[in-house]
Known about the structure:
By secondary structure, the chain is an all-alpha fold. The protein has helices spanning 3-25, 35-56, 61-71, 83-107, 109-119, 134-151, 155-172, 180-186, 193-197, 204-207, 217-222, 251-255. It is globular.
Amino acid sequence: xxxxxxxxxxxxxxxFAAMALWExxxxxxxxxxxxxxxxxxxxxxxxxxxxxxxxLLAVTPVxxxxxxxxxxxxxxxxxxxxxxxxxxxxxxxxxxxxxxxHVMFHAVPILWRVHRMHHTDLDFDxxxxxxxxxxxxxxxxVIKLGAVAALGPPVTGVIAFEVALxxxxxxxxxxxxxxxxxxxxxxxxxxxxxxxxxxxxxLKPETNSNFGFNLPWWDRxxxxxxxxxxxxxxxxxxxxxxxxxxVELRLDRMLVQPLRGQVGDYPIGHEETT
Length: 274
């Protein structure tokens, strides 16, 4: 296994275990469904996604960054940027790309069909941060490859971003209780669970807010920030209006969700017509 994959896998295991223990000891909300009901589907799709990446795409963002460095491709390769600054710029730039991608998946109806599987989880915990449809994972990978090709970033910066994206996704989807005064400070630097949970509200204005994964700045900069859910964190309803039966938490039902039902009125600027 290449060293970057070992780093990512090790970080995944450590953060997943830590967040699972934390949310068991200090949960923010009571569970509506047991882990036995939800986790097989969420962990099942999380196991499928890296296998598809491995077998369908011959290059990874890290591999492309190595190639860009060897060939002198990309904006950063054409500029004499100090290594540390280049690593930081890489993480920030790629994080903005993922923010914009996330908004796009909420704005384009056909992309929302793919992305909404992430929003049809009926509870919110560490495994929600792994619950992405394989088609979305592949599209996201293509977008990241395009960004890496254009930037020509240092390999270390790409590895740092990939590790951060995987680990913060588990952190900010976790059902953990963080004191409000600490959360207010943390969300100046990183997306916290209370900040991101708003994005999983069933209310459309809240679903279409707080798109950030790693850095919280883009939501404030682009006007998509919402501090708290209208109903409060304990009382808010998680999910969307569709696919609310427990059977929809099964892996087979999750995988075919993009082909089922109507688009609905969740996509930004879209109203369902009949």
